């Protein structure tokens, strides 16, 4: 508290946010990044899993959500996003992956005997089907059922989308734990 700072992108003065609830950070009086969106709890939770220096990394005129190994940008996306916005971000960041919050998607995911997984998306967000960079879906923790009763929950899962069949809403991929993704 009481420190002064300026944005690396626009040089505007920043406000230090040093409360007890969220991670300490700097905030704009008004945001200079046209891609900025309000952050959900999901978005904040993912950023809290990595070192603060890897979050909100300025790549003028934008700020990448997370920059990981080999300078790979991890674009966290909770809300819907249009196909032109996807293309613009993929072109700008180039070395990037998408992590979409898929916990409420209507997905049917099946493991096959040979170890791979297939999916069918009942109400697809069609703009995502045209991503050219690697796509991961955060599907959260799966309910473990016995009959119609939930008896527990499995580990937090990330689905790595390897293939979406042309013109369809199904494909295949791999299942990762949250730790494997990180």
- The number of helical elements comes to 3
Structural class: mainly beta
Q: What summary fits the major beta sheet?
A: 9 strands, mixed
Q: How are the strands of the biggest sheet laid out side by side?
A: 4-5-6-7-10-11-12-9-8
Terminus-to-terminus distance: 31 Å
The number of strands is: 12
Overview of the molecule:
By secondary structure, the chain is mainly beta. It contains three helices and twelve strands. The radius of gyration is 18 Å and the shape is globular. The chain starts with a strand and ends with a helix. The model has no long low-confidence stretch (mean pLDDT 85).
What brief labels describe this structure?
mainly beta, nine-stranded mixed β-sheet, 3 helices, 12 strands
Question: What would a concise description of this structure say?
Answer:
With 182 residues, this protein is mainly beta. Helix content is 12%, strand content 43%.
Reconstruct the topology from this structure:
Elements: E1 5-6, E2 13-17, E3 25-28, H1 41-47, E4 55-59, E5 62-67, E6 73-77, H2 83-93, E7 96-101, E8 107-111, E9 117-121, E10 135-146, E11 149-164, E12 170-177, H3 178-181
Parallel strand pairs: 6-7, 7-10
Antiparallel strand pairs: 1-2, 2-3, 4-5, 5-6, 8-9, 9-12, 10-11, 11-12
């Amino acid at each position: 508290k009481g420190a002064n700072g300026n944005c690396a992108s626009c040089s505007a003065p920043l406000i230090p946010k040093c409360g007890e609830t969220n991670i300490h950070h700097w905030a704009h009086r008004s945001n200079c990044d046209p891609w900025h969106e309000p952050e959900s709890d999901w978005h904040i939770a993912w950023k809290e899993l990595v070192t603060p220096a890897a979050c909100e990394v300025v790549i003028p005129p934008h700020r990448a959500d997370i920059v990981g190994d080999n300078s790979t940008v991890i674009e966290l996306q909770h809300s819907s996003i249009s196909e032109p916005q996807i293309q613009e971000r993929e072109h700008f960041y180039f070395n990037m992956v998408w992590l979409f919050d898929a916990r409420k998607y209507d997905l049917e995911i099946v493991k096959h005997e040979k170890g791979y997984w297939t999916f069918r998306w009942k109400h697809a967000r069609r703009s995502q089907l045209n991503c050219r960079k690697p796509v991961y879906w955060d599907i959260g923790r799966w309910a473990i059922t016995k009959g119609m009763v939930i008896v527990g929950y499995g580990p937090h899962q990330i689905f790595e989308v390897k293939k979406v069949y042309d013109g369809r809403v199904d494909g295949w991929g791999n299942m990762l734990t949250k730790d494997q993704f990180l």
